[in-house]
Design brief:
With 548 residues, this protein is α+β, with helices and mostly antiparallel strands. Helices cover 26% and strands 27% of the residues. The chain contains 14 helices and 26 strands. The protein has helices spanning 27-30, 60-63, 70-73, 115-123, 199-211, 216-219, 231-249, 291-300, 309-312, 361-374, 388-395, 443-459, 461-478, 520-535; strands at 14-21, 38-40, 46-51, 79-86, 94-99, 129-136, 142-152, 164-171, 181-184, 188-193, 225-227, 257-258, 271-275, 317-322, 325-333, 338-344, 347-352, 355-359, 382-383, 401-403, 408-409, 419-420, 424-426, 430-436, 500-507, 539-547. The strands form five sheets. It has a ten-stranded antiparallel β-sheet with strand order 2-3-4-5-1-10-9-8-6-7, covered by helices on one side. A six-stranded mixed β-sheet has the order 19-26-25-24-23-20. A hairpin with a 2-residue loop joins strand 16 (338-344) and strand 17. The termini are far apart.
Length: 548
Amino acid sequence: MADAGALVGPVPNIVEISLRLMRGSTAEEALKDDHDFTPMPSSIGQLYFNQSGAHPPGWVNFLEEIAPAARDEFRTQSCSAVLFVETKHPAKRLFAICFGQGHHALTDGAVETGFGLKVTLNLVSRDRLRVIDSAQLDSTVMQKRTQASRNADLGAFEVDTDRDLVRLASGIPSSSDFAKALTGRDALKFRAHLAPTRIVAQCERALELYGETSYQRDFGFIDHVQPVSSRTLIQALDDMVFEELKILVDGGASDLHLAIPDILGPEDSVEIGYFGLGLSSGKESYLELAIEDYVSELRKGKFDTITDMRALKPSHEIRVMKNGRSDGTHRRKLYSCFVFETSEADNSYVLFDGIWYLIEDKFQKDVERSYQALLKPSFLTKTVAKTEQALIAELIADQRLLCLDQTRSNPAGAPTAKIEACDFLSRQSELIHLKDGHSSAPLSHLWNQALISAEAFMGDSKFRGDFRRAATKREVKYNRQGFSALIPDGRTRPTAKNFTVIYGVMRHAHKKSKNLNLPFFSKVALRAAAARIDRMGFNVQLHLIEKV
C-alpha cells in the first residue's frame, strides 16, 4: 500500500509576496497613463512587465575621474512586473502583486488605504510584533520606526494611542496557515509556502482577513482616524487646502505645512527642487522640504495660472537635484507631502501622505471636552506682536508680571538640561509659558516645556533654588518686588495647588469663523501633557492670544 504522505505532493517553496488591494476593477484603471510596462501572456490574471536597458550607475560620475574606463564597463539594469488577479469570493475585487519596482507603475490613489495594516493586525497578536512605524502630526511631523529583535508586546513599542498614527506593523502570526511573517501598510508583504496556481485563493483569503474586526481588541486605536472615500468631500477639502496656499502666497499665516511621509535614513539626505505648473523656471536646490521654500517658488513663478487643487495635484512634484539638474527617476507628488487639518460640517479632517482622514467622532468629542476644560479667559486678549520674542518685549512693562525668559537651570544630575522655569511669573503664582502658534516649531514643544519645568519645580531642590535666585535678579533688573517670595527655597517642596501653569498661545483668528482655535492633534498632545501636570497637583490653563 502506498504511503499516504506521497499523495500530498511537494511543499511549495517559500516566496515573498507584495500584495495590494485595488480600488478600481480593471488593470487599465490601476496603471498610470504614462506607464511603460508591456503585457505578457499569463495563464492567471494579467501580467505587465518592464525591463530597463543597461546603463551606467549614478555613482560612476565620481569614479570616472580616477578610472576613465568605468563609464564603459559598469552597467546596471532592473526588471519589474505587476500581476493583476481578480477574486470572486468573498467579493469581486482586483489585486495587484508587484515585483521589483512594479508598484511605481500604479496610479496615485489606486490602492486601498490601510489594507495591509489591517490584515496584519488581524493575524498578529499584540505580543508577537516585530516593527511599528508611526507618525505624530504637528507643524513638525515626527516619524519613527521601533524594531524589536524578537517578538515583543505592543507596550514595548511605546505607542501613544492618542497621538500616534500607526502606519505600518510587522510581526509573526500565531498560525502559519496564511503566512509565516507579515508586514502591512497599504500593501501587504508576506512570506509563505505558495504555489503560483494558488495566488487567487491567497488573495481571497487576504480579502476575508481584511474584513475581520479582531484587530479591534488590541489595536482599536487605529480607528481614531479613517480614510475619506467620498470624491466630492475630498474635492471640497482640497479646495480648502488651496485657499490656505493662496493665503500663504499673499503673505498671510496658515497651519499648512509640508513633510516627507516616509521614514528616511541618514544616508537619504539629498537636495530637492520644486517642479510643475506655475512654478519658477529657474530651478533652485533646497536642503530640506519646507512650505516657506515652496511658497517662495510659487511667488517667483506664475501662481495665478494655477486655477485650483485639481490643476496643482497632478503637476507639482519634488525631485532630487544633482549638480543643479533634476533627477527624474527620484520624484514625488508634492500633494503627498501636504499636512493640514480642517473642519467641515462639525467633523474634523487631517491630510497626510496624500490621504484625507476623518477623525472618529467619539475621539474628537473626548479631546474637545478636555480642550474646553483647559481653555480660560486669557490674561492678554490681543497683541500686535508678530513673534514670541516681540510678545515678551511687550509684556515686560506689565507690573503684574516678572519676565524670566532665558533664565535656565540644570537640575541635580542633569548638567546640560537648561530648563526654563517659565517665561513670566505673575503675582498670582502663575507660571506662564508662551508660544507663537504659527511658528515652524511644533506646539508640542510648548506643552512639554511646561511639563518638564513643573516636574523639576516639584522634584528638584537645586532647580527651585536656581529659580528663586533668578527671580531675585530679575526683580532688581525690572524694579519689581514680591515675586521671588512666591517661590519656595530649595529645601521646601512647593504646594502645587497654589500654582497655576498657563500655556499662552498666540494665534490668528480663523479667516471664516473668526474664532481662535488650535489644530486637532495639538489639542491631543496638550491633553496628555496637561493631564500629567494636573496629576502633580498644579492648576493648568490654556490662554489663547489673538494676533491682530
